[in-house]
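Bug #77: duplicate submission created two jobs. Keeping one. Sequence:
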Amino acid sequence: MEETFAKKLVNFLISAGIFILEMLKVAVLAGITIALIRYYLFKPFYVKGASMEPNFHEKEYLIIDELSYRFREPVRGEVIVFRYPDDPKEYFLKRVIGLPGETVKVQGGKVYIYNKENPEGFELDESYLPANLDTEGERTSKVGENQLFVLGDNRPNSFDSRRFGPIDQSLVVGRAWLRGWPLNKLTVFTTP
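Kept job's structure:
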């Protein structure tokens, strides 16, 4: 009788060991998969500050798409995360306004874009902003090749290209793809 109990105990221990080993394999593979996705495809981003209000608020949690810009250029109106040119350890969230080769003029509370298609310029339609919001400052910036001109949505309270000029595209981490927190504001972002 003791022999049967010993056999059962050994079989149980072998089965438990195999189960634990399989669980460890699954955990390691899941960890590797999550790390690859997090570092090469999608990155979490926590909103700090009020520079993108009323569209993005402090303490919101965003998922940044790092893959799209490997296959295409940024589009005017997209919200991007980039490294601040003067301190690459600091990340900013801003909206793409001016594209490579364009001239951006901020004057009289409005934003004007001059490019090959519109050499006389056009006033930028910013329907994502409150109707009564003016873009403060007077500035004309030529956007170089591989550069972007970016502005915060909260124009009176945003440190953006009006102050530090166009940014190099090499500083862009990715575009805002999903607002995951708070849950009542869950949003998948499209280009305006």
